[in-house]
Amino acid sequence: MEFASSGSREHLERYFDALPDQVIMLDAALNVVCLNASARAFLRTSNAEVENRPLERAYMETRYGDSINLLWDALNAAREGRGTTFEALKDPDAPDVKGFEVSVRPLQGEGGGWTGIIIHMHDITLRCRSRREMALQNNHLAELARINATIIEVMSAIHIGQTLDEIFEIIFAELKKVIPYDRIGLSFLDEKGEQLTVAMVKSDNPILLHKGYSCKLSFSTLGQLLDKSLTAQNDLVLLEGGKKRIIFDLEKYVKAAGRVTPYNERLLAEGIRTNLAVPLYVANNATGFITFSSRIPNVYSRGYLGANYETCMHLLDAVQPHLALALEKGLTISRLRETNQRLKELLGMKDDFLSIASHDLRSPLTTIMGFGRLMLEKTQVNEVQRRSLDAIVNSAGHLLILVEDMLSLAKANSGKLELNLAGANIHEVLAQSINAMSFNAHNKNVVLDHRAVECATMMLDRSKIFQVFNNLIGNAIKFSPEGGKVLLHESEADGKYRFAVTDMGPGITAEDQKKLFGKFVQVGTDAAAKAAGTGLGLMICKLIVEMHGGAIGVESAPGKGSTFFFTIPLKRNNG
C-alpha cells in the first residue's frame, strides 16, 4: 500500500477506523502517529496514550510473541524503502492457534522519499486453524497410507513367500517401519493348545530363546492372553484378553508377579525390557502368538509412543489375521516338506531293497530255469514229472520277469537307469527273445509267426531291448487264446526300425488304452492274466524305448485283438 502525505489527519483516521483490520501508522522516527480502532482494541490503548511515542518492543512482545523479531526486521526493511509481508502466529501447534498476516510498507511523501511506515494486520486465525486441521488430516492419511502399505507388503509376503523363513523375513522388515522393536518372535501351539513352540525368531541382538524352544503354555505368561474375559491395567502391564498384552517393564513384572520361568529368564538375559504380545487366531481357534520386544522399558506405552500409539495398535489389529494365516501356511509348508523328505528317504530305502533283492533273486531263478529245461529236454520223465517240471520252469520264468521289472523300476526311480549302448543287430536280439518266449508259447499251443527283415548293426542297449521284446511278446502270448497265433513283424522306414506284435486277444477299449503305459496298470477282464503280471512291463518298455529316442504305442479295439509297436532311430554303427 502506498499513501500520499497530503490529506488531513482526520480524514486518514476516519478511513483507517472504518477498516476491520488493524492499522498502525508510524513516522520516520518510528514514533506512533495513530492507531485505528481495531489496533487500539487489540493493544488495549488509545491514540492519546501512544501518539508521538516510540513503538515499544517490550509492549509489542506481549501481543505478538515470537513474531516480534519478524516485525522488527520488517520495520528495518521499510526504513530502507522495502515492503515486507509475513505471518505472526501465537501457539501455532495448539488447537486454538491465533494469527495475523502482517504487511509492513514505507509511506511515500510528495517528493518521493519515505515519510513513515504503515503496519497492516489481517486476522488469519480461521485460516491457521483450518490449515492446522488439514495438516493433521494429511498426517493421519499419511499414517493410514503407511499402515496400508505395510499391510499390503505383509499380505504379499504371505501369498508369495514359500517358506516361513521367507515370510518372516519380510514381516520383520515391514512391521518395523511402524512398530518399534529389537526382537520379534513367532510361536505356535500344538493341536491341544497346551504346548508352546518357538517357530521363528529375529533380533538385532544375540538370541538365547531360540527357534525350536518348547515349553508348556502354563509355564509362560502368554496363556492369560487367550482368556478373552481377562483385562488388567497398571504400571506394569496392560492386558486385553484375546487382543494384546503389553508388559511395560519385564524385569519388574517378573519379580512382582513371581513369574520367574526359563522362558522369561532367557528373554531377560537377551536384554529385553518390554514386551508386546498378540494372539493369532484361525477360524476362532488360537494357533500361536507374535511378540514384539525392545531393550527400552515402556517403549509400548502411550507416553513413549505418543500419537504413534494408536497407529501401532491399529496396525496390529489389521495384520493379526494375516499373520495368523502366515503362521498356518508356513507351518503347513514346512510340515509338507518334512513329510516329502521323509517319503523320499523311504522310497530310496524301498528302491535299494528292491535292487538288492532283485540282484539276489536273478541268479538262482536263472539256474532253476536252466536246469528245469535241461531235465525236460535231456531226461526221460513220465507225464506227471513233465507237468511238474513245466510248472517249475514257467513259475521261475514268470518270477524272473517280475524281478527284472522291479529292478528296472527301482533304477528308474533312483535315476540310475542308464543305457549301455553298443553296436548290435536288433534282428538277432529279437530272435533271442523269440527263442526265450517259445517255451511259454509251446505250453499254450500258441504259434509265433515271425516276419523278419534284415537289419544292419545299430547302436542300442542289447539287454534292455531284449527286455522290451520279452515284455511285448510275453503279453501277446498271455492274452491270446489256446491254439492262437501271435504275429511278429519287423520293418524299416524313414530312418527308423519298427517292431509290431499282434495278438488274437480280447482287445482293449479306447479308455483303457490311455492308461496302459502307467505304473502298476492292468486292464481288461481276464483275472488270471492280471494275476500273472505286475502292471509294470509296459511302463518299463515305454521308458526304455524313449531312452533310445523312440516311441511306443498300441492299436486295438474290443474283440479285435491288439497290436503293440515301437520305433527307434536307426543309429548306425560307424565302427
CATH architecture of the largest domain: 2-Layer Sandwich
Q: CATH H-level name of the largest domain... which superfamily?
A: GAF domain
- Here the CATH topology of the largest domain equals Beta-Lactamase
Mean pLDDT: 82
This entry's quaternary arrangement is: single chain
Shape: elongated
How far the N terminus sits from the C terminus, by CA atoms, comes to: 110 Å
Q: Which stretches are low in confidence, meaning pLDDT under 50 for 5 or more residues running? A: 1-6, 527-532
Largest sheet: 8 strands, antiparallel
Number of helices: 17
Helical amount: 40-55%
The CATH C-level name of the largest domain is Alpha Beta
Class from helix and strand fractions = alpha+beta
Question: Outline of this structure?
Answer:
This protein has 575 residues and is α+β, with helices and mostly antiparallel strands. It has helices spanning 9-17, 37-43, 47-50, 57-64, 68-79, 125-160, 164-175, 250-257, 262-269, 302-305, 308-378, 383-413, 426-443, 462-479, 510-513, 527-531, 537-547, and strands at 22-27, 32-35, 84-90, 98-108, 114-123, 183-189, 195-203, 214-216, 231-233, 237-240, 244-247, 274-282, 285-294, 422-424, 447-451, 458-460, 485-493, 496-502, 551-556, 562-569.
Structure in words:
By secondary structure, the chain is α+β, with helices and mostly antiparallel strands. The protein folds into 3 domains: 115 residues, PAS domain (Beta-Lactamase); 200 residues, Beta-Lactamase, CATH 3.30.450.40; 152 residues, Heat Shock Protein 90. Helix content is 46%, strand content 22%. The termini are far apart. It is elongated, with a radius of gyration of 48 Å. The protein has 17 helices and 20 strands. Strand 9 and strand 10 form a beta hairpin.
